[in-house]
Write a structure and sequence with these properties.
The structure holds two protein chains of two kinds. The model of chain A has no long low-confidence stretch (mean pLDDT 93). The longest helix of chain A is centred in the C-terminal third of the chain and has 13 residues, at 53-65. The N and C termini of chain A lie far apart (34 Å). Chain A has two helices and four strands, in the order E-H-E-E-H-E. Chain A has helices at residues 19-27, 53-65; strands at 2-11, 30-38, 42-51, 69-72. Chain A has a four-stranded antiparallel β-sheet. In chain A, 28% of the residues lie in helices and 41% in strands. Chain A is globular and about 35 Å long. Chain A is α+β, with helices and mostly antiparallel strands. Chain B is α/β, with parallel strands linked by helices. Among the domains of chain B are: 1-43; 80-106 and 209-384, Rossmann fold (3-Layer(aba) Sandwich), CATH 3.40.50. In chain B, 39% of the residues lie in helices and 15% in strands. Chain B has helices at 37-43, 46-50, 84-90, 110-122, 135-147, 161-168, 181-194, 205-210, 214-222, 239-253, 274-281, 306-316, 328-339, 345-359, 381-384, 397-409; strands at 4-9, 15-16, 31-35, 80-82, 95-99, 127-131, 150-156, 173-177, 198-199, 230-234, 263-269, 320-323, 369-373. The N and C termini of chain B lie far apart (63 Å). The mean pLDDT of chain B is 95. The chains are: A alpha+beta, B alpha/beta. The A-B interface holds A 4-5, 9, 34-35, 37, 39, 42, 44, 46, 48, 69, 71-80 and B 11, 22-23, 26-30, 109, 130-136, 156, 181, 184-186, 188-190, 192, 199, 201-202, 205, 236-237, 285, 287-288, 296-306, 346.
């Protein structure tokens, strides 16, 4: 088991989708929301995920496939 | 490190000891170094600073490391040039260029990396690391060499040879990461979690960011202990913008300068302008973008300090402005042809954005304006393309005269 801290950014059309709920139910990943800002036009959620390494990876790939952007909590780390 | 109090979360205010931490354990917000300004104000004066070395380390009382331990390769105290020729073209009488492209590895990155390397040794890290597409990798490799540390430099596998060689010459372990940008970003973030390495812009980020404050101090000192009316700063993560402002604020708060009213403008390239995009729509939320820009050193689609940069724009009545991609090279050439300074693409973004700010009436002719040029043009030669059209001649005088006359007519 390991943990991963990530940030999900939701485009407006996906704000009402229960993406985090499905991540927990379908992938059996424990989700722990720490900070969020959800509005009509956009939303972001910072959360910690706990589960098997491979399952977390599969889960994040699925989240990205829905159109939700997945980033490390600290923003981009590749600098010029 | 006599004046440092703690690390504090920028979001929830939680306090942490001075350790290699990046994020708050409660809300995962970024951490910032907090100082005892009363102690600093007793320790420094204009005279004590002026008596210091001609490097960024003359401001050591404002940095989170001990001066005696500094890994110093003579970074900083770079020229502030009164740009009369460029100013004349743009309609500015008091335009200054802060030329930070003359640092030891030819970019401003030497400032944050110098602080970070010093701190990494203090924390007894054996490995200094970064993930970079250019300026940062060269600086980390150079400072790692000076510090005698093992150095790991990660970079996208398709990076230009010139940039790879520019870092490799210092002797780090070079690691080429295949795959797309997002995968490399995620992979290196995981590496930082799983190795006890000093990743300069990940687990060392609170200390790393502090080095950029010196670009605020220097400008104020070089202007005769006065803050400029305007600063035009290139924007990638947004951290440079916030830290130059923090530096000016610190000088003002302890009385080294007075009457701080600087407008902090932010310049991004059109192909990667998430902070400017939020500014223009009046949003306090920075929506990540996928970078597609010529200005590779500004290609951060999900800027860590984006929201704080927006706060600085709001607080200082600054303007977020983007340079159209097809004006970046124009900006580089304009600076080179008027002031004899060859900057990289980020500098082209700054100069083109400065021009827009003047055209928009945001900057007036008699206002003191500082444009930050943060990297050397020799680093991004490939971006210049094939723009040279020489006069062709055989080695005889008549042919040359004829060719010259024809060229002057066209």
């Amino acid at each position: 088991m390991s943990t991963k801290r990530v940030r999900f950014t939701f485009p407006s059309e996906l704000i009402k989708e229960p993406v985090i709920y499905k991540l927990g139910i379908d992938f059996e990943i424990v989700t722990n929301i720490r900070r969020a800002d959800v509005r009509d036009s956009m939303g972001w959620v910072v959360l910690e995920l706990e589960g098997d390494d491979e399952i977390i990876k599969d889960g994040l790939d699925w989240v990205a496939s829905t159109g939700v952007r997945v980033d490390p909590v600290g923003g981009d780390i590749i600098e010029g | 490190m006599p004046h440092v109090k703690c690390l504090r979360c920028r979001e929830c205010g939680s306090e942490y000891p001075i350790e290699p931490l990046n994020a708050c354990e409660f809300c995962f917000g970024p951490l910032e170094v907090e100082y005892d300004y009363e102690s600093i104000s007793k320790a420094v004066s204009r005279e004590s600073i002026a008596a210091g070395p001609n490097t960024m380390w003359r401001y050591h009382d404002f940095l989170p490391v001990d001066r005696e331990l500094a890994i110093d390769i003579s970074t900083g105290f770079t020229p502030l040039i009164h740009a009369k020729n460029l100013g004349s073209q743009l309609g500015l009488d008091k335009l200054y260029i802060k030329n930070d492209s003359v640092n030891p590895t030819y970019s401003f990155k030497d400032r944050p990396v110098s602080v970070t390397t010093t701190k990494a040794l203090e924390f007894e890290f054996e490995v200094l690391a970064c993930v970079s597409t250019g300026n940062l990798m060269g600086s980390v490799a150079a400072h790692g060499a000076k510090a005698g540390m093992k150095t790991m430099v990660f970079y996208p596998a398709d990076l230009e040879q010139g940039k790879i060689q520019g870092a490799a010459v210092y002797g780090p372990t070079m690691v080429a990461v295949t795959g797309n940008y997002d995968h490399a970003n995620r992979f290196c973030s995981e590496l930082a979690d799983n190795h006890r390495w000093a990743f300069v812009n990940i687990n060392m980020r609170p200390f790393y960011a502090e080095g950029s404050k010196t670009l605020g101090y220097e400008v104020a000192e070089q202007l005769g202990w006065k803050a400029p009316d305007h600063c035009v700063v290139p924007g990638a993560s947004g951290e440079l913008h916030t830290k130059i402002w923090k530096g000016l604020q610190e000088f003002n708060d302890i009385g080294l300068i007075e009457n701080l009213k600087t407008k902090m403008h932010l310049a991004q390239p059109e192909g990667c302008s998430p902070i400017v995009g939020a500014f223009e729509t009046g949003s306090d939320h920075v929506t990540p973008v996928r970078p597609e820009t010529l200005a590779k050193s500004l290609a951060i689609g999900n800027p860590a300090a984006g929201p704080y940069s927006l706060e600085v724009l709001k607080e200082t009545d600054g303007t977020g402005v983007y340079a159209e991609e097809n004006t970046i090279i124009d900006g580089i050439k304009l600076l080179a042809e008027t002031e004899g300074i060859f900057t990289e693409t980020a500098g082209g973004v700054v100069i083109s954005s400065l021009k827009k700010l003047v055209e928009q009436g945001k900057i007036k002719r008699d206002e003191v304006t500082v444009a930050y040029v943060t990297g050397n043009g020799l680093k991004t030669m490939e971006a210049m393309g094939d723009f040279v059209e020489p006069i062709q001649t055989t080695p005889d005088y008549e042919t040359f005269q004829t060719a010259l006359a024809a060229a002057q007519k066209s």
